[in-house]
Structure formats: structure tokens, C-alpha cells
Amino acid sequence: MCNLYTVRKSAEEVARYFGVANPVKSNSPEEVYPGTPGMVVTEQDGSREMRSMIWGFPLRLKTMKPDAKPIPVNNIADLTKAMWIGVARKPQWRCLIPVTHFAEPEGPKGKKTRTWFSLPDEPIFAWGGLWRMSDEWGSVYSGAMTTANDAVSPVHDRMPVILHRDDYNSWMTGTLDDLLAFQQRVYPPELMEVERTSDLWVKKKASGAEDAVLL
Fold it and tell me: CATH number for the domain including 76?
């Protein structure tokens, strides 16, 4: 599952790429972790806008204490599950998550390093997501996952649902079946670039980063 991605572009560049007329200044960091702010693109009445939201739908488990902090559910394994299907059916709760790179940990426990994945021909690309309003954190979002392709599978068995440019309208306005088709599609591995690094996976603890879950 994806617990770290980056947006190494300015708000103006992201807005221009997604056709947003008025870019919104965001407090989103370059590296985005579960439970922290990130930029998303939403659409209403055919007009797109950028918004800052928290990455992860808040989840309270029955075993948690009443005053415990919710867990950010930042990855969507199955759009037909009860937690997601009501939101996924309604286009107003769809979003595009701007990404320049996403990372997975690789290596032995305690010494895992960051392996980055990107699209060399697309300096910015979109991860298909959902968003909603929450009582705990306000606006929140999560990204749909799919089976890893041959580029990602040596590191992890899942990867984000990466959308081609001509997929954006279908994700934002299509039917639930359209979204399920995207989640079942394997993204072409030859379009991706893999960068293995010596950077440790855990550089510093980010709020919620170690508690994220996939549902």
C-alpha cells in the first residue's frame, strides 16, 4: 500500500496541469504522509478546483479507547466495501490526487529504504481518489489501489490507481462500474521509472504515518 508520495511542483504548476483556473495556496508539504495535509483536485458542475485536505478517512475501531485518535485509512483496496461504496457512487465525492512520485519501503526490517516510482513522460500525474467531509478532520481523501504491475511487484503487491490523462473525466463523472474497471486495470509497467535509494524509509515520524491501514 502507498504511505508516502510527493508533489514536487508548485501549486501553480499543478493547477495548470489539471486545468484549474485559480490555484489555492496550500500548507501541504512536498512529502505527504497519512494523516497530514495534501492537495486534491475536485470537480463541481464541470469546474475543477484545488483543495487542501487530510490524507486518510478517519476510522475508529471498536477496540479503541474513547479518547484515542482515529486511524487514517489512506488506501482503498475495494471500492465495493461498505466504507467506500456510498461515496464512490456519487461523482461529487470523486477526486484526482496530484502526484510526482510515490514510494514503497524495500529491504530488511529496521533497514528499509525508499524506492520511488514515477512516470518519466508525465512529470505530474493523477491518482484516482475519493473524498468526503468528516467530523474529526474536516475534508479528507483516500486513494484507490490496484494490483501491482511488473515495475512495482518486486517491492509490493499493490499500487495506486494511476490514471491516464484521458481517464480523468471518466473517473470524475463516470459510473461505479467505470471506477471498478480502473481498479482492476494493470497500469503499463513500461511507462514507469523505478528509483532505488539509500534513504531510510523512516526519516522522521509523521503524524499518523505508522498507523495507516488499507480497507
Answer: 3.90.1680.10
